[in-house]
Specification:
The structure holds two protein chains of two kinds.
Chain A: H1 6-18, E1 24-29, E2 38-42, H2 45-51, E3 52-53, H3 65-69, E4 77-81, H4 83-94, E5 103-107, H5 116-122, E6 126-132, E7 135-140, E8 145-149, H6 156-159, E9 171-172, H7 186-192, H8 196-207, H9 215-219, H10 245-259, H11 268-272, H12 280-294, H13 319-329
Parallel strand pairs in A: 1-4, 4-5, 5-9
Antiparallel strand pairs in A: 1-2, 1-3, 6-7, 7-8
Chain B: E1 2-5, H1 9-19, E2 21-28, E3 31-36, E4 61-70, E5 73-78, E6 86-92, H2 93-106, H3 113-121, E7 122-127, E8 152-157, E9 160-165, H4 168-176, E10 182-183, H5 187-201, H6 218-222, H7 226-231, H8 239-243, E11 250-257, E12 260-267, H9 287-305, H10 317-321, H11 328-335
Classes of the chains: A alpha/beta, B alpha+beta.
The structure holds iron/sulfur cluster (SF4) (4 copies).
One iron/sulfur cluster is lined by residues 234-240, 271, 322-324, 326 of chain B.
Chain lengths: 330, 341
C-alpha cells in the first residue's frame, strides 16, 4: 500500500493551483480497470478530483513528458516524482532537455508498484484490485476474490529498488528514504556466468520476440533525440520492422550502447514492452561494467555529472584491458 | 456436430497434422502464441494469443521479390512460394472476424496475391470463449463469442471438445477425423452458448456501443477538441497497431545486399512520424493527427468504405498492451457522448 494518500496529493496540488504556483499538473488518470492508469495533464483541482489516481499502478515516470510539457507554456507545471523518477529528472537536466524553472517538482515516497502481468499469472477476469496492507485483493469476474501477497506482485524493478531517496524536488511530501543496497545486479551476474553459447541463446530467445514497436525507446527518458536514427529515412538503418533477426538484435545493442552512462535504471523499457523482454538486463550489464571499470557511478544522482566513460582521467582502464576481459569471456 | 474427449486432444492434433501443417496456441515464457504443432506440444489455456493470428496471412515482414545485378544486367527474382495447406486451431471469435476485415482490403481489386495465396490455404478452427477477459468487448461490434465464425467452430464443455463444421472445407476436414470423433448432441452447446452470452453481459465494457460512430461521421468527430487530451501522452510507439489483428498498413522497402536488392514489405503504423511520408513530408504533422487517424479509421473511415463493418473487433489487445493505457475503448467513451456514458 502507498503510505501517502491520494487525498494528500490532491490537497497539495489544489493549493498550488489555487495560489498560482503552477497552472497544470502532470498526474495519473483513472481508467476503466484498476490498472489502466494514463499519464495526463490536469488543469484544475476539479478535474483532478474526478479522475486523478495515486496507487499501486502509477508506475509511469513523468520525467520525459516534461520535455514536451515545459515547451507548452511559460507557467510552471507540477510534476509528482517517485524516487526513481527523480534520477531520470536529473539526468534530463544534465542533458539540458527541459527548463528546470518551468517545473514544480514534488517528491513522493513510493512503496513499489504492482505488475499487472504478475497478477494475471494468478487470476483472470480482473474486475478490480484493492490493496489492503501487504495484501492485494483481486476481485475477479468468475472466481470471486483472490488474495495475493503484494510483495510477490511487485514489478521486478521495484523488488530491486535502488533508492527510496529523492535526488531532486522542490518540495517533499511524506518521509524521505535512503539509497538502498539492492540486489539488482544478481540477474546480470547469472547471465555473465553462462557460457557464450548459452548467453547467445538466451538473448536470441528473448530478442526474437521483439515486434519492434519501439515502445521501449519511446518511453525511455534517455532516448530523447529529436529524430532517432532508426526513424530517419536518410540514415540507411531506418526500419519500421526488422528485415531479419540479425537487424533486430542490432537495434537493441545499439540502443543499449547509446544510453550507456545515461541510463538511470528506471526500468520503464521493461515495464512497457508488450513482449516482456527483460531489456533492463542489457542496460544493467553496462552499468555494472561501468561500475567495475571506473568505480561506482549512478546516472542522475546529481545534475551535471559526466559519465566516467566520457570523462577521461589518468586512472582509466586501458582499452586493451577491456578487450582482454572481453576475450576471456568469449 | 462431432465431439472428442479433451484427454484425446493429442490424437486429434496428430490426425490433422498427418496431412496438414497445424498451428495451435502454446504457452510460452510470456503468454501464449501460435506454434507449429509437434508431438509433445499442448494447447494453452490462455484466452488469447499475445500476437494475433493475422501473422499467418499478413506477416510482419515478407520478401516480395529480389533483384540481382551483374554488370549492367538486372535479374528479377520471384521470391514467392506456393503456400501449403495449413490449419489454425483455437482462433477466438474476435480474431476470426479480423480476417473478414483484412479480406476486404487485401482481396478486393487489385488482389494482393501474397495475402491471397496464404488465405486460400488456411483453414480456421475457431474456439468459443468460456472465460472472456475484462478487456474483451467483441459484442460491441456484433461479434458473438459464444458462436464464432470459422470453418469449424469448437467449444470446450464438460471434458469434451465439440466441433461443428460451418463451411465445406470444414466439413471435409471433420469427415477425415470421423474415426477418432463421435457424433454429438447439440443441446450441451445450446446451454454453453447461453452461459457465455450471460458472461459477456457482465463484462466491464458490456455497455460500450458503436451508436455514435460509423459511416458519415467524419465531420462529427474530425475536429473534436478531445483528440488533443486523448492523445496527450501517446508515445507514438505503434504497439497498439502491431498487436492489433485488423491493422493492415504496410511499407515497402529495399534492402541492399552485395550484388542486388531484396524488396520486402513490413508492417507500418499510422502512429509513426514517417508514416505515408511524401515529398512534402508526412501529412499528419503531430501525434494528435496520427492518433486521430488510428481511431477514425477503425470507427468511421473503414465502416464508411466497407458497408458499416467496423475495423475494431474488440479483442482487447491494445487495452492490455498500450504503455500509457490509452485505447479505443477510452476513445469511444470520451467521444461517444451519452451513448457510452
Ligand atoms: S518495447 Fe519490446 S517489442 Fe517493442 S521494440 Fe522494444 S523490445 Fe521490441
Ligand atoms: S496509443 Fe498507446 S500503444 Fe498506441 S502509439 Fe500511443 S502510446 Fe503507443
Ligand atoms: S483496436 Fe484494439 S481492441 Fe480493437 S481490434 Fe485492434 S487491438 Fe483489438
Ligand atoms: S491507418 Fe492506422 S489504424 Fe488504420 S490500419 Fe493503418 S495502422 Fe491501423
Amino acid at each position: 500500500m502507498q503510505e501517502l494518500t491520494r487525498d494528500a496529493l490532491l490537497a497539495r496540488a489544489a493549493e498550488l493551483l489555487e495560489n498560482g504556483t503552477v497552472d497544470r499538473v502532470l498526474g495519473w488518470k483513472r481508467g476503466e480497470f484498476a490498472y489502466d492508469v494514463t499519464p495526463a495533464v490536469f488543469k484544475s483541482a476539479d478535474e483532478m478530483k474526478e479522475s486523478f489516481v495515486w496507487g499501486d499502478f502509477c508506475g509511469a515516470n513523468f520525467s520525459k513528458y516534461l520535455i514536451a510539457e515545459t515547451k507548452k507554456s511559460e507557467n510552471k507545471v507540477l510534476a509528482f516524482l517517485k524516487p526513481c523518477d527523480t534520477y531520470s529528472f536529473n539526468q534530463l537536466l544534465t542533458e539540458h532537455r527541459f527548463d528546470r524553472e518551468k517545473v514544480y517538482a514534488i517528491g513522493i515516497p513510493c512503496d513499489g508498484m504492482v505488475d499487472i502481468a504478475k497478477i494475471r499469472e494468478k487470476a483472470d477476469g480482473i474486475a478490480s484490485v484493492d490493496t489492503n496492507g501487504d495484501k492485494l485483493i483481486v476481485h475477479t469476474l468468475f472466481d470471486g476474490d483472490v488474495t495475493l501477497d503484494r510483495a510477490e506482485m511487485l514489478a521486478e524493478r521495484c523488488t530491486v529498488c535502488k533508492s527510496k531517496k529523492h535526488v531532486a524536488y522542490d518540495e517533499l511530501l511524506g518521509e524521505e528514504g535512503d539509497v538502498v543496497d539492492s540486489a539488482r545486479f544478481d540477474e546480470v551476474a547469472k547471465i555473465e556466468a553462462m557460457t557464450p553459447d548459452e548467453r547467445f541463446a538466451f538473448w536470441q530467445g528473448e530478442l526474437s520476440r521483439c515486434i519492434r514497436c519501439n515502445a521501449c525507446r519511446d518511453v525511455c527518458p534517455a532516448c530523447t533525440c529529436e529524430k532517432c536514427v532508426f526513424n530517419n529515412p536518410n540514415s540507411g538503418v531506418e526500419n519500421k520492422s526488422p528485415a531479419n533477426s540479425f537487424e533486430e538484435q542490432m537495434f537493441h545493442i545499439i540502443r543499449a550502447f547509446h544510453v550507456a552512462g545515461r541510463c538511470t535504471d528506471c526500468g520503464e523499457c521493461s515495464r512497457v514492452c508488450p513482449q516482456h523482454i527483460p531489456l533492463h538486463l542489457l542496460n544493467r550489464k553496462f552499468i555494472k561494467d561501468i561500475d567495475s571499470f571506473y568505480g561506482e557511478y549512478q546516472a542522475g544522482a546529481e545534475v551535471g555529472s559526466r559519465a566516467p566513460h566520457i570523462n577521461y582521467t589518468e586512472g582509466d582502464i586501458e582499452p586493451s584491458d577491456a578487450v582482454k576481459r572481453g576475450d576471456e569471456n568469449a | 456436430m462431432r465431439k472428442l474427449a479433451i484427454t484425446k486432444l493429442n490424437d486429434l492434433f496428430a490426425a490433422i497434422a498427418e496431412s496438414e501443417k497445424l498451428y495451435i496456441p502454446v504457452d510460452g515464457k510470456t503468454g501464449a502464441n501460435y506454434e507449429l504443432w509437434a508431438e509433445g506440444k499442448t494447447l494453452s489455456d490462455a484466452l488469447n494469443t499475445v500476437r494475433s493470428p493475422k501473422d499467418f496471412f499478413f506477416p510482419q515482414t515478407e520478401d516480395m521479390m529480389a533483384f540481382k545485378t551483374e554488370g549492367k544486367k538486372i535479374e528479377i527474382i520471384d521470391t514467392r512460394e506456393e503456400c501449403e495447406d495449413f490449419v489454425i486451431f483455437g482462433v477466438r471469435a474476435c480474431d476470426v472476424r479480423s480476417f473478414a476485415v483484412l479480406d476486404n482490403v487485401f482481396l478486393s481489386d487489385p488482389v494482393d496475391s501474397y495475402y491471397k495465396n496464404r488465405r486460400d490455404h488456411g483453414l480456421i478452427m475457431s474456439m468459443a470463449c468460456t472465460r472472456p477477459a475484462e478487456t474483451c468487448f467483441c459484442k460491441t461490434f456484433g461479434i458473438d463469442a459464444a458462436d464464432p465464425e470459422g470453418d469449424i467452430v469448437c467449444w470446450r464443455v464438460q471434458g469434451f471438445l465439440y466441433m461443428d463444421a460451418k463451411t465445406e472445407k470444414g466439413a471435409a476436414l471433420l469427415d477425415k477425423l470421423a474415426s477418432i470423433t463421435e457424433e454429438a448432441d447439440s443441446d450441451v452447446i445450446a446451454e454453453e452458448k447461453a452461459l457465455i452470452r450471460a458472461r459477456m453481459e457482465k463484462l466491464p465494457l458490456a455497455s460500450l456501443t458503436t451508436d455514435a460512430f460509423g459511416p458519415g461521421k467524419t465531420d462529427t468527430f474530425f475536429d473534436s477538441p478531445e483528440w488533443k487530451s486523448l492523445s496527450e501522452s501517446c508515445l507514438g510507439c505503434g504497439t497498439c497497431t502491431f498487436v492489433c489483428p485488423t491493422c493492415q498498413c504496410y511499407d515497402i522497402r529495399d534492402f541492399k545486399t552485395n550484388n542486388g536488392v531484396i524488396r520486402y514489405r513490413c508492417w507500418d503504423s499510422c502512429m509513426y512520424s514517417e508514416f505515408t511520408k511524401m515529398s512534402a513530408g508526412q501529412p499528419r504533422l503531430t501525434q494528435v493527427e496520427r492518433f486521430r487517424q488510428r481511431f477514425m479509421h477503425k470507427l468511421v473511415y473503414y465502416p464508411e468504405r466497407y458497408n458499416g463493418l467496423y475495423s475494431c473487433v474488440g479483442c482487447g489487445r491494445c487495452l492490455a498492451k498500450c504503455p500509457i493505457q490509452m485505447n479505443i475503448a477510452k476513445v469511444m467513451k470520451t467521444l461517444g457522448g451519452k451513448a457510452n456514458d
